[in-house]
């Protein structure tokens, strides 16, 4: 039995990037042998195990044979005679098809180190086209390593385009598409991810609303905005900025298409509805109140705070208006309902007086 560090950990180690997780391939072993050593099996389609102490993933070396459409249609062979090279050749990119043995020696049968030096993302073999998920993975890697100058090899981009034309990308599940998008948001270059999808004609399939207006100029605008994003809400903020031009009516369709988390849907719906309205240093009182009501600032102030934080990143003028919105929110939420009741108002009158008091508070700032 031989054990090798593989994939992203080897790649990022050679790039002097932080290693987020370590994955291993085990050659010449069986599930029974690993179970006897205390490993915990977690894979169902093929044997993947967790190390009894480190909890790192250890997978038996395997080969794959296409048995159907999509990224799940494979038959795996993980017998002890599967070699390391046979396992590596099934991987997506040459830079991900390297291994390191227990002595620290790099095994690189497909010239991944050379492609790292040339900053090139190149597919390993024709088996690449058997898994449509790799289209999104390559787009994500292009985004992640864009700051280092990485680009996709022309022949790989051509292959991706052919896969899109053949309809393979249509077999991807909503969850897998969203996972790749979310990872690209975390990497901070979702515009590059989108550029790649646009270049290979995948954007109309994956994100139809965005395909209508994506362009090199818009991509650069998003890239500039993303440099301003920080803080604990940076993924949701980047998401809203990325999709800021879509129509509010398209948010629900997009949510269903990608099965978006509720926090993203709420934030995007609020942003696409109201951000286009507040284009100057003034805002209609009724629209500000509508924003507060839709955000439910009275019970969930964090939703309005997220809108304000995102809106302020659009520019200096927006930042000035965002400060006014924050002041208005502070004043309106401080209005005492009990004081209105003590004035003798009852039933529907209370709601009317409360709305009037909130409008007056907003008007004091915006008029």
From TrEMBL:
Annotated catalysed reactions: a tRNA with a 3' CCA end + 2 CTP + ATP = a tRNA with a 3' CCACCA end + 3 diphosphate; a tRNA precursor + 2 CTP + ATP = a tRNA with a 3' CCA end + 3 diphosphate
Enzyme class: transferase
Binding site for ATP: 8, 11, 91, 137, 140
Sites where the protein binds CTP: 8, 11, 91, 137, 140
InterPro entries given in the database record: CCA_bact, NT_sf, PolA_pol_head_dom, PolyA_RNA-bd, tRNA_CCA-adding_enzyme
Its EC number(s): 2.7.7.72
Cofactors demanded by this protein: Mg(2+)
Gene3D superfamilies, sorted: Beta Polymerase, domain 2 (3.30.460.10), cca-adding enzyme, domain 2 (1.10.3090.10)
Domain tRNA nucleotidyltransferase/poly(A) polymerase RNA and SrmB- binding: 149-211
Family: Belongs to the tRNA nucleotidyltransferase/poly(A) polymerase family. Bacterial CCA-adding enzyme type 2 subfamily.
Physiological role: Catalyzes the addition and repair of the essential 3'-terminal CCA sequence in tRNAs without using a nucleic acid template. Adds these three nucleotides in the order of C, C, and A to the tRNA nucleotide-73, using CTP and ATP as substrates and producing inorganic pyrophosphate. tRNA 3'-terminal CCA addition is required both for tRNA processing and repair. Also involved in tRNA surveillance by mediating tandem CCA addition to generate a CCACCA at the 3' terminus of unstable tRNAs. While stable tRNAs receive only 3'-terminal CCA, unstable tRNAs are marked with CCACCA and rapidly degraded.
Other notes: A single active site specifically recognizes both ATP and CTP and is responsible for their addition.
HAMAP family: CCA_bact_type2
Name of the molecule in the record: CCA-adding enzyme
Chain's gene name: cca
């Amino acid at each position: 039995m031989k054990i090798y560090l593989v994939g992203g950990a080897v790649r990022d180690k050679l790039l002097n990037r932080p290693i987020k997780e370590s994955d291993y391939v085990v050659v010449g072993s069986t599930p029974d042998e690993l179970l006897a050593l205390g490993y915990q099996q977690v894979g169902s389609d093929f044997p993947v195990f967790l190390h009894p102490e480190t909890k790192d993933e250890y997978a038996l070396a395997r080969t794959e044979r296409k048995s159907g459409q999509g990224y799940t249609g494979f038959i795996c062979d993980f017998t002890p005679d599967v070699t390391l090279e046979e396992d590596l050749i099934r991987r997506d990119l040459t830079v991900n098809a390297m291994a390191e043995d227990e002595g620290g020696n790099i095994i690189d049968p497909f010239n991944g180190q050379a492609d790292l030096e040339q900053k090139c993302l190149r597919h390993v073999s024709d088996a690449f086209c058997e898994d449509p998920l790799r289209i999104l993975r390559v787009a994500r890697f292009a985004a992640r390593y864009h700051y280092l100058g990485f680009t996709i090899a022309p022949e790989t981009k051509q292959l991706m385009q052919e896969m899109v034309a053949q309809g393979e990308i249509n077999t991807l599940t909503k969850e897998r598409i969203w996972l790749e998008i979310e990872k690209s948001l975390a990497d901070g270059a979702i515009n590059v991810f989108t550029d790649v999808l646009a270049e290979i004609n995948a954007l109309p399939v994956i994100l139809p609303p965005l395909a209508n207006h994506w362009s090199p100029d818009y991509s650069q605008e998003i890239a500039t905005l993303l440099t301003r994003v920080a803080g604990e809400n940076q993924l949701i903020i980047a998401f809203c900025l990325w999709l800021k031009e879509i129509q509010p009516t398209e948010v629900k369709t997009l949510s269903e298409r990608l099965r978006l988390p509720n926090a993203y849907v709420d934030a995007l719906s609020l942003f696409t509805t109201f951000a286009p309205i507040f284009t100057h240093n003034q805002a209609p009182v009724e629209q500000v109140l509508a924003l507060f009501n839709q955000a439910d600032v009275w019970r969930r102030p964090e939703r309005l705070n997220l809108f304000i934080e995102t809106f302020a990143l659009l520019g200096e003028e927006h930042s000035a208006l965002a400060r006014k919105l924050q002041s208005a929110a502070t004043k309106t939420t401080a209005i005492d309902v009990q004081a209105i009741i003590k004035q003798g108002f009852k039933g529907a009158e209370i709601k009317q007086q409360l709305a009037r008091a909130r409008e007056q508070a907003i008007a004091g700032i915006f008029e």
